[in-house]
Amino acid sequence: MSIVLYELCGADAARPFSPFAWRIRMALKHKGLDFECRPKPFSEIPAIAPEAGKTVPILVDGDRTICDSWAIATYLEDTYPDRPSLFGGEGGRAAAKLIEGWVNASVSSLIAQLIIKDIWDVLGPDDQVYFRETREARFGRSLEEVQSGREDRLAEMGTALLPLHLMLKSQPFIGGEAPLHTDYLLFGTLQWARITSPFQFIDPSLPVGQWRERCLDLFDGFGRSVPAA
């Protein structure tokens, strides 16, 4: 039985955009595992595997169902040790956990405020109602107000990405000469923005922009299989 990955999509099922699911898409490619993607809108996700969780990604591998991108990545590493390592050892696994925390806390939160209304635009009608209600409650403002003036906040994104910018001056990937899961953790978040929003906040001429292009080229251009917004 093929591995099945449930992920998030908007009105167009051919444009899955969950940052967490993209982390696992890349991890599965890294491991060289065959898998089937099943994109679902927000409204259908809670019914997929309620005993495992109510958010994507959800991975089904035989009789195992795993929810949460970090849990899935560690499952893949431990279950398929004969395949290329996602972490490059236990030290790499620990470092990846640090990168995950940095991306989730410092990068994703900034990106969300730059593209929040654009995400709403790509959703189906039912999901638009859910997304507006939940996100406006979270931010305490309308989606339009959150996203307004985003051009003036680009410096904040530059500051958040500065450690990566400095690292990538001397090596092609966060993982070193070749990518590891540390790369996919951030790449998934940038894919989320690339697929849902036309707003450009990464300078392609800078090290981070060049790194993103290298990630898009991985696995025969797998990241480019979904065109940019």
Automatic annotation (TrEMBL):
Entry annotated with the keyword Zinc-finger: no
InterPro entries assigned to the protein according to its UniProt record, in alphabetical order: Glutathione-S-Trfase_C_sf, Glutathione_S-Trfase_N, GST_UstS-like_C, Thioredoxin-like_sf
Recorded superkingdom: Bacteria
Chain coiled-coil ranges: none
One record GO biological process: glutathione metabolic process
Residues annotated as domain GST N-terminal: 8-84
UniProt keyword annotation of Isomerase present: no
SUPFAM superfamilies, sorted: GST C-terminal domain-like, Thioredoxin-like
Molecular-function GO term, any one: glutathione transferase activity
Cross-referenced Pfam families: GST_C_7 (PF22041), GST_N_3 (PF13417)
Keywords: Transferase
Protein name: Glutathione S-transferase
Species this protein is from: Stappia indica
